Amino acid sequence: MKTIPETTKDITVTNIYPSRALIFLLACSCGLIVANLYYAQPLIGLIAPDIHLSPVASGLIVTLTQIGYCLGLLLLVPLSDLLENRKLVLWGMGGGLLTLIAAALSQTAMVFLFSCFCIGLGSISAQILILVAAHMAPAEVRGRVVGKVMSGLLIGIMMARPVSSFIAASLGWRSVYELSAVAMVILMGVLWRLLPSRVPEAQQHYPELIGSLWKLFVHTPELRRRAAYQATLFASFSLYWTAVPLILASPRFGLTQNGIGLFALVGGAGAVAAPIAGWLADHGKSHLTTGLSITIVALAFLLAWYGGLHSLVALLVAGVILDFGVQTNLVVGQRTLFSLGEHARGRLNGLFIAIFFLGGAVGSALASVSYNYGGWPLVCVIGMIFPILALFLYSTEKPFKF
């Protein structure tokens, strides 16, 4: 496949190999930033009555955060192809900081919900940091560098829910946002000092940049294919991690909120997949790795079905290998897209993440419905359907060369 014609040119970080310390900083930063999207999910039962939000409308807390993030991916991440990236990251984090403070201080549902929407917008700084890492890394090791940074982001996703549960249990839900705001202040200071500058030499204005998103989607078949793979797998991921607390808290297992939090902590071990996936992609194994990752997700739900009926350990192992498969495919997908043309990485990544987050929203929406109507077996059947659809699409793929 041909790369996308170049219309911009980086004049700073290109070909500068990132140090281990910088990679670690980027990984930690991505994890801390993206965790803001997930802190509220296990706390809805505490937050809603405190801000006078009805139980029926409490789902808006998660929904508006996701909507803000998706809009940020489509409208703000493409700015990384136009504006200096370090300032863009810091401005995004600054906006997120203000909304974290607003969330912690909010007394009404309207203020808190608007804060959730803006927290989603501000969290796109994590995706821009991944792009900076991709630009810094030479092509032959780009997958490994992106994989290491992605491992931090994915650990942030997995750890956000149990961490917020533990903090809220001891200090109250507002302390979660207060402590996150403090972390963002410290992180902004470190990134301001240590994050290298990247200035794209843009030849487009912002309206043209946003208008080009549709053209990129239509004329980049590898984007459509990779987004479809990840959307189906992320739907399974969201389905599992939204439904599994229901069965863990049921009389079958009877776990407390802290027990469920510990379950999620151990489940986060699947994040080790990211560097492994990057190494495989760098060695020309993207096609094979994609097929294996999709198959692993399907097999994880077979094990989860057995575990939900017989064994907590099997249920936990299923969560770990599910994460492993989803994260492997994510890193391979991003590495593939980053090879298509560095001038469009921001837009390609924004489209890719936005599309598969929609898949995640579908999975989350199906979780409680499927569990209420068919119990854990129906959750697992639906969880297997998504990767099976991805395998049908995968059967039509020719190995991608880059």
UniProtKB/TrEMBL annotation:
Transmembrane segments: 21-39, 51-76, 88-105, 111-133, 145-164, 176-195, 227-248, 260-281, 288-306, 312-331, 351-369, 375-394
Pfam family of the protein (one): MFS_1
Stretches assigned to the Major facilitator superfamily (MFS) profile domain: 15-398
A GO molecular-function annotation: transmembrane transporter activity
Superkingdom to which the source organism belongs: Bacteria
Keyword vocabulary terms for this entry: Membrane, Transmembrane, Transmembrane helix
InterPro entries membership: MFS, MFS_dom, MFS_trans_sf
Entry-linked PANTHER family: MAJOR FACILITATOR SUPERFAMILY (MFS) PROFILE DOMAIN-CONTAINING PROTEIN, TRANSPORTER SCO4007-RELATED
Protein's name according to its UniProt entry: MFS transporter
